Each structure stands twice: as C-alpha cells, then as structure tokens.
Input
Amino acid sequence: MPRIPRYNGGAEMKQNMEHTRLLVLSLLHGQDMYGYQMITELERKFDKTFSMKEGTLYPILRSLENEGALRAYTQETEAGRVRKYYSLTKKGAALLAEEKARWRRYEQAINSVVGLA
Amino acid sequence: MTEQFERFTLAVCRHVPRATGDEWAEMKAELTAHLEDHCDALRLRGMSEEAAAERAVREMGDPEEIGNGLNATLSPFWGFILRLSTFFAVLLVVACILPGLFQVQILWGNLTARFATADSIGIRTEFQAIASTDCDLRIETKGHVVRVLRYATGTQAGESGVSFWAVTYAKNPMGEGNDSLIASLTVNGARHTRGAGHGSAGVVYSTYFTPVEPGTEAVTLVFDRLGDHFEFELPLDWGDAA
Output
C-alpha cells in the first residue's frame, strides 16, 4: 500500500508523487473534478489498496496547473459551497500519454525482475 | 468544526511564505472546502460533528508537508518582487501622507490663531500680574498678522514691568508662522528682558516682559520691522502698587 511520506525530497516521495500525478491526470481524463471528489474516486477505484494523505493532493494539483496540464475554475454548489474544479488541457492529455508510457516501461522493468512478465 | 479547520489551514499557511494574500486565500478556500466535504460525508455515515471534523483534519495529513509542497509550487522570484513592490508602495504612501499631515498641522494652527484668546495661549511664566487688560490689537505686515491679546502690569523676578501676550500667523492659511515678528514688538522702544512662547509650523504664541517703573500711567507698544511701523498707546493700571 503506497503511502506518500513526509515532504523531504527523497526518492520514494518523488516516485509516489509521480504515480499520483499519473493517477490525477487519468482521473481528469474525460471528467472535471474537484479535490475531494478525486480522493473519493481514488478510494473507490482502489478499494483501499491505495491511500494517501489527502492534503498532499493539492501541491500536485497546483504543480500540474503551473505546468499548464490542468486548468482550474470555480463553481458554486446549490448549498453555496465554492469548489475548485480541474480539467485536463491538451498539454495535460499529452502529459498523460507520456506518463502512461513511462508507467508501462516501469511496470515491465519491475515485472521482468520479479518474474511476472 | 470551523475552529479546527481554521487551526489546520493556519498551520499550513505558516509554511507557504511565498504566497501572496490572494494566492493564500485561494488555497485556504480549497483546503477548507475539502475538509467540509469530508466532514459532511463522515456525518452522513453517522459520525458526530466533532469526531467527523477531527478525522477530516487527521486524514488531510501533516500541515507542514502540505504547506512545503504548496510553497514549492510558487515562484520565489515573484514573491520577492511582490514584497519589494509592497515595501516601495508603503514608502510612497508614507512619503505622500507625511507632507499632507504637515500641511494640515499648519492649517489647523493658523485657523486656531485667528480665533485665539489670551486665556487659550497657555504659556506659563513667573510673571505675577497686578492688573490685566484683554485686547485685540492687530498688526498686519505684508504676509503675516500679529495679534496682541493681553497686556498686564505686574512683577517678574522682583522687577516691576509690563507683559504682553501675542500670537502671529500667516495671512495665507497654509503659510508658516514667523517667530521673529512678536520679538519685534517693544514697550517704549526698550528691549524686553524675558520672554517665553510655543507654537507649531503654522502659528507662534509668545509673551514678553519689559521692566517699567511702577505707577507709569501709559506705555507705547511699538512694532518696527522692515518698514512696517505701528504704535499703540496702552494705559496702565497698577492698583495699590502705584
């Protein structure tokens, strides 16, 4: 069960962040979402095999927004709560394709070592 | 609930020094909305409000880690430029306001002097008055006005004499007072021996004492300065001291 450790610039954290970037980009492919919605969607899809400290999602979202991979906009709910939605840009879609390819290479490399390929 | 969320966001904020006010407000709103959404979801599952808020905060993670992560997404350059701009903006405002305040002080002093009475001058001296006479003798020079508001017979430091109280201000309400004008007033042309006064940029209040023989029936108050010449005959009252 991968966990994002303390923000210490370590290799494990960097790797987990990259995985979370891939997950975020994948979630936003085809549907705009706000932060808490992404967390609940991740929990639902992974059925608790993946967990992360929820707040660590936001630096990743801001980082992707800075890169131009995501576009953010706010929307008010009927209850008057203002939510910040994120949508995938063309650049984000291209980044998602790159991240997927990188993940496949990583997966193949791991599988070849542990003998699952 | 709100208090717990506020504490959490404040703890995050401490680690986002590069954020501008607007940037932080946006981040705080997003984190707070997340906490509220999570709390609502937990309450729907039957959890108490307090327990739900506690858990929502706990599951957000370490505020320092989140704050550092958010801070890393902000440009140190723009933060520096922002602080520098704020510093110069404050400096500019102060530079604009200070002269304005000085002008207001001049105006206030000038307007007050136009309506001042001898009682409002408030200068303390060792002069012991025998008989005081309130008046309003006006001396108008090219740019200034001198008003003599009171004169009195009495003693100071064992000497008998006459004191007068005067104020001077510029005709232009925004003009500065001239403290040498009252000093140009003399009794019988003799130099006064003691004086005191106070004032601000717009106005000068002064009192001067000149020795005069007790029983002198009248003195002449003379103003002679740069071609302006005024004389006032002042009858004196010595009471029983004469």
